[in-house]
């Protein structure tokens, strides 16, 4: 794999701009108290007035009253009760968010019906630098067990991260690179056991602050055997798309769903009077199975039922490992007229191998990537305060093996962005712009280089109609350069059971996004209701073909009004296991609505009771003659949760209805609806100067319903796990500092 010393020098030079000058004293910065967003209240608030949360993702630190863009936050008790599993599972209960599940080991967030490269996943403001956007069977290289909070930006606010994040941004935030020093030693931990699959989750976090130095270390691990499911794993489309058991289905067990993951990190941050500088090195490893993958690799498997012993040995597994270094530097008042200079740098070494049922390595994906961001915030000029920033990235991607359907590609990008905001009376206005230069350079010699210059613009306003009643309007025009796999793919993509052919001549996508919301963010009853419309010109998608040719274009053309199928060598075969798909472009539109609400039934006295609810809907379809639905779109959903607390005891009971998805794309199968019932019970054992401990019980899918996710490629062979019960202990220990 090729390395890029010039890229490293560039990023290190950017880091040097944030090195504290010699005049910095060793006096640590004073601790600050942050307000928090009303969009993500903890499930057990102590008062009728919501605590304020500051949104950290983005260029401005803003409270709920100041927010212009649609932002959602998962933190506190809500995150604590959900952060096991994949990132998609953690967030799938939020309005507008779904889980693009590829089994229990891989699940990437889908925002407003869009996923893959259109959703940017960040680790503390820097890309995860993995291969998860290339294929849904690739896990996100970030461990939710280490998260302190997750912030989701939907719609126009994604501009500062580039047009590639046209659907949204998910930023997983922890405290490994803090702004302040917390004196003394602190240890936090969480351990749980689940009966389904004998799942265990363990997470520890240690912090020690002394003088201007903050030391930190994290460790987390998750293990599980094959998960139990209600009924059969595999179904076939029959009787108008209704589910029916497959003869090869293995009842009550989702074969090849066992998993193991481990992450650990260590870091050091120096905090001075005028700034800070810190670094952390982290390691993430996971080994997980792809349910149903034995059938994808063996076309005869569906015709011959397998014995129980044979099932245990079949299926592809993925072994993923990532080592990354993150650096962060900050200067306060760096230059006259400027109040802050901040740099973030990520250096990444990523590899994952797809292990075939016989133990051989089928495909190896290797990603060497470096990314850096510099942001310079200026003081108000004529009422306008803003940030100008530079982002650079250097990515070398290589795939070797049977599923190497994308050639080695080097991708370099440089982006310049600018955002300004000002208050106009009680209202707030924000404007932004970004321009990128992206270059794809294939290394196989048979594909052309492609260069793109995406330009993005955004405008938003927060109108205060009454106290804490906000009308937010946002508009954006964002361009997204085609990803390397869309340009250069050619070969069998067994995970999606397709033979994919890229298109060298693809143009950039242009997303025209309008977002309108009305929110009441304080008081006994709070709510947020919004609608969105996103028209994407030159939308890039995979479409079936009916030409009667082999994948390389050879043969005699024929048309039988049936989508062409091929074998893994690309030879036309009506009974082939792979659908022949071409990358194409056509205008598309996504539109929908989201609603969330909370009412405090009892907000005074020892007993507290509140009700929460949400609902969302999204529609995605191609425009023009022969308009058709897009595949794997999130169905309509609504949910309600009751939260209660009495002294040290707290609990919640939640119900979610996921409706059937019958707005189908060509060749897509019907997805039945399902009901989900969950419950949580917590008891705080001890509260004192040294910390606290909480024992908890949790139940998921208590109705033991079969859940087939419309957003999943594997919905017909891999439903979600059945009823799961967890017991766990969480603690936070911080002994008093001497003196």
CATH class descriptor: Mainly Beta
Overall mean confidence score, pLDDT: 85
Radius of gyration, Cα only, in angstroms? Answer: 25 Å
What count of helical segments does DSSP give?
Answer: 6
Approximate strand percentage: over 45%
Helix-and-strand structural type: mainly beta
Helix fraction by DSSP (H/I, runs of at least 4): under 10%
Describe this structure in words.
The longest helix has 12 residues, at 5-16. The chain has one domain (5-733): TonB-dependent receptor, beta-barrel domain (Maltoporin, Chain A), CATH 2.40.170.20. It contains 6 helices and 37 strands. It is mainly beta. Mean pLDDT is 85; it is low at 1-51, 237-249 and 295-312.
Give a nutshell description of this structure.
By secondary structure, the protein is mainly beta.
Question: What labels would you give this structure?
Answer:
globular; five-stranded mixed beta sheet; mainly beta; 739 residues; 6 helices; 37 strands; Maltoporin, Chain A
Q: What topology emerges from the helices and strands here?
A:
Elements: H1 5-16, E1 71-75, H2 76-80, H3 87-91, E2 97-101, E3 107-111, E4 119-123, E5 126-127, E6 149-154, E7 168-173, E8 184-194, E9 199-210, E10 213-224, E11 227-228, E12 235-238, E13 242-245, E14 253-254, E15 259-271, E16 275-289, H4 293-297, H5 308-311, E17 317-332, E18 338-355, E19 361-381, E20 384-401, E21 409-424, E22 427-442, E23 450-452, E24 455-466, E25 469-480, H6 484-488, E26 490-493, E27 498-501, E28 509-520, E29 525-544, E30 565-566, E31 578-602, E32 607-622, E33 637-646, E34 649-658, E35 674-688, E36 691-700, E37 724-733
Parallel strand pairs: 4-7, 27-31
Antiparallel strand pairs: 1-6, 2-3, 4-5, 6-7, 8-9, 8-37, 9-10, 10-15, 11-14, 12-13, 15-16, 16-17, 17-18, 18-19, 19-20, 20-21, 21-22, 22-23, 22-24, 24-25, 25-28, 26-27, 28-29, 29-31, 30-31, 31-32, 32-33, 33-34, 34-35, 35-36, 36-37
């Amino acid at each position: 794999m090729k390395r890029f010393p010039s890229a490293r020098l560039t990023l290190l030079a950017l880091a040097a701009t944030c090195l504290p000058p010699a005049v910095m004293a060793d006096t640590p910065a004073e601790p600050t108290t942050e307000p928090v967003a009303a969009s993500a209240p903890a499930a057990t608030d102590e008062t009728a007035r919501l605590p304020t949360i500051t949104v950290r993702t983005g260029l401005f630190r803003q409270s709920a009253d100041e927010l212009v863009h649609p932002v959602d936050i998962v933190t506190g008790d809500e995150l604590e009760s959900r952060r096991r599993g994949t990132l998609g599972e953690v967030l799938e209960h939020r309005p507008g968010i779904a889980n693009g599940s590829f089994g229990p080991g891989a699940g990437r967030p889908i925002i407003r019906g869009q996923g893959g490269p259109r959703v940017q996943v960040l680790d503390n403001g820097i890309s995860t630098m993995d291969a998860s956007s290339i294929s849904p069977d690739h896990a996100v290289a970030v461990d939710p067990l280490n998260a302190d909070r997750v912030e989701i930006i939907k719609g126009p606010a994604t501009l500062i991260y580039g047009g590639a994040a046209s659907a949204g941004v998910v930023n997983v935030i922890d405290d490994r690179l803090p702004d302040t020093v917390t004196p003394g030693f602190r240890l936090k931990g969480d351990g749980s056991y689940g009966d389904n699959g004998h799942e265990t989750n363990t997470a520890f976090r240690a912090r020690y602050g002394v003088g201007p130095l903050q030391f930190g270390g994290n460790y987390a691990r998750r293990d599980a055997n094959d998960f139990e499911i209600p009924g059969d794993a595999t179904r076939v489309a029959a009787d108008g798309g209704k589910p029916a058991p497959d003869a090869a289905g293995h009842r009550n067990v989702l074969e090849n769903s066992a998993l193991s993951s481990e992450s650990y990190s260590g870091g050091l941050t120096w905090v001075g009077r005028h700034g800070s500088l810190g670094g952390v090195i982290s390691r993430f490893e996971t080994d997980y199975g792809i349910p149903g993958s034995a059938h994808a690799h063996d076309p005869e498997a569906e015709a011959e039922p397998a014995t129980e012993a044979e099932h245990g040995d079949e299926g592809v597994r993925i072994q993923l490992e990532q080592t990354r270094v993150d650096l962060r530097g900050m200067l306060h008042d760096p230059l006259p007229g400027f109040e802050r200079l901040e740099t973030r740098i990520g250096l990444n070494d990523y590899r994952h191998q797809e292990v075939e049922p016989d133990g051989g390595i089928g495909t190896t994906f290797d990603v060497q990537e470096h990314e850096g961001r510099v942001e310079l915030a200026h003081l108000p000029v004529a009422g306008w305060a803003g940030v100008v920033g530079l982002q650079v990235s250097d990515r070398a991607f290589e795939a070797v093996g049977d599923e190497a359907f994308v050639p080695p590609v080097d991708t370099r990008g440089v982006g310049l962005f600018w955002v300004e905001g000002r208050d106009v009376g009680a209202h707030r206005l924000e404007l932004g712009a970004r321009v990128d230069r992206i270059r794809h350079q294939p290394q196989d010699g048979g594909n052309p280089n492609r260069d793109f210059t995406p330009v993005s613009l955004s405008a938003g306003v927060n109108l205060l109609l009454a106290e804490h009643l906000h009308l937010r309007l946002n508009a954006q025009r964002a361009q997204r350069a085609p990803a390397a796999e869309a340009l250069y793919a050619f070969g069998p993509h067994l995970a999606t059971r397709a033979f994919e052919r890229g298109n060298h001549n693809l143009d950039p996508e242009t997303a025209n996004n309008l977002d309108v919301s009305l929110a009441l963010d304080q008081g006994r009853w709070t709510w947020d209701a919004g609608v969105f419309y996103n028209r994407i010109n030159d939308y890039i998608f995979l479409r079936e073909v009916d030409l009667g040719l082999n994948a390389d274009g050879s043969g005699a053309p024929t048309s039988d009004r049936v989508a062409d199928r091929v074998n893994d060598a690309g030879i036309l075969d009506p009974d082939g296991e792979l659908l022949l798909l071409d990358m194409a472009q056509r205008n598309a539109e996504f539109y929908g609505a989201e609603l969330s609400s909370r009412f405090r039934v009892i907000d005074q006295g020892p007993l507290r009771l509140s009700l929460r609810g949400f609902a969302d809907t999204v529609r995605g379809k191609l425009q023009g003659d022969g308009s058709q639905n897009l595949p794997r779109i999130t169905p309509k959903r609504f949910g309600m949760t009751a939260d209660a607390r009495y002294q040290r005891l707290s609990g919640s009971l939640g119900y979610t209805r996921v409706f059937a998805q019958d707005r189908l794309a060509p060749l897509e199968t019907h997805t039945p609806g399902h009901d989900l019932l969950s419950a949580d019970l917590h008891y705080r054992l001890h509260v004192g100067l040294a910390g606290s401990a909480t024992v908890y019980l949790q139940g998921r899918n208590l109705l033991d319903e079969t859940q087939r996710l419309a957003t999943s490629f594997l919905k017909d062979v891999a439903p979600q796990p059945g009823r799961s019960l967890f017991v766990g202990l969480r603690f936070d220990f911080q002994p008093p500092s001497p003196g």
